[in-house]
Amino acid sequence: MNTTIIQVANLHKQFNDNQVLTGLDLKIESGQIVGLLGTNGSGKSTLIKCMLGLLKPTSGTSTVFNESSWDLSATAKSRLGYVSQEFALLPWMTVKATTDYTGAFYEHWDYAYVTRLMKEWNLDENQRVGVLSVGQRQKLAVILALGHHPELLILDEPVASLDPVARRQFLQSLIEFTEDEENTILFSTHITSDLERVASHVVFLEEGKIGFSGELDSLKHQVKRIRISAEQDLPLCLNIPGTLRSQIDGQYALLAVKNFQSEAMETFTKELNATFTVEDLNLEEIFLELSGVSTHAEAEVTV
Ligand SMILES: Nc1ncnc2c1ncn2[C@@H]1O[C@H](COP(=O)(O)OP(=O)(O)OP(=O)(O)O)[C@@H](O)[C@H]1O
């Protein structure tokens, strides 16, 4: 049975007069791999920090393992792994000294697992941290977060500096991490193809609110591109509920809709004496449509 790992209720966060998060409600359950999407500055890091108790919400609540995020016990913290965007490592230490030093803080540090990950991810344990590339440092930060087998892993843009090979290895490790145990992952990213490869659920932040939260498959099922073709010119405004974008050109129309319902579309097009076809969008196209950026430029309006 799935248990609730993170629960956010009516969460607001404001920095001076900058309202970043506006009444968010969110539930993440054990075993989920949740991808957090949103445009730059939409509040992904702020939400993560509120969940971890690193920032205090202006109002509302957040709990992790049923404990208030703002007041997490040492036991709850030991069940967490977190990699922030601005992680700090000591440049004069070697990779090995860094992992040993971090491991010393944990009761159940898995030295063998850490050594295996370092080998798989081509990290030289004798190298000094100060001379590592940005991507190598990012790999090390992720390994440090995994070494104690956290039940909940939170990663803020973990793959931004990784090359495609390292990204594949990293994603594979994430899959193993949740396959072996009932672990939960929340990660923010701008790389939608990565998210599509591993995430079971998606949370989409939009103007301080949750634009979508649910299963990845459900999101793909709901957001579609529709082509309408009629015998006569179509009206200039179609008024189809859930339309994100529409382009009308005489007898033809091209639309992106959210909450697509086949029956409603059938009724609507019948009234216009028109027919329609439905096309799937990939996650990047869905993300762009939900963010208000048309992907129609790449698609012809006519059938
Ligand atoms: N400590 C802070 N003090 C003041 N403003 C902040 C602080 N942290 C974040 N902000 C503001 O909150 C907004 C959201 O920032 P945040 O870093 O959460 O966005 P993000 O979605 O993670 O962005 P990105 O995709 O670029 O990493 C921005 O306008 C930012 O300037």
Automatic annotation (TrEMBL):
Pfam families named in the record: ABC_tran (PF00005)
Keyword terms: ATP-binding, Nodulation, Nucleotide-binding, Transport
Xref: CDD domains: ABC_DR_subfamily_A
Domain ABC transporter: 6-232
One Gene Ontology MF term: ATP hydrolysis activity
Listed InterPro entries: AAA+_ATPase, ABC_transporter-like_ATP-bd, ABC_transporter-like_CS, ABC_transporter_ATP-binding, P-loop_NTPase
Family membership noted in the UniProt record: Belongs to the ABC transporter superfamily.
Protein's recorded name: ABC transporter ATP-binding protein YtrB
Gene of this entry: ytrB_1
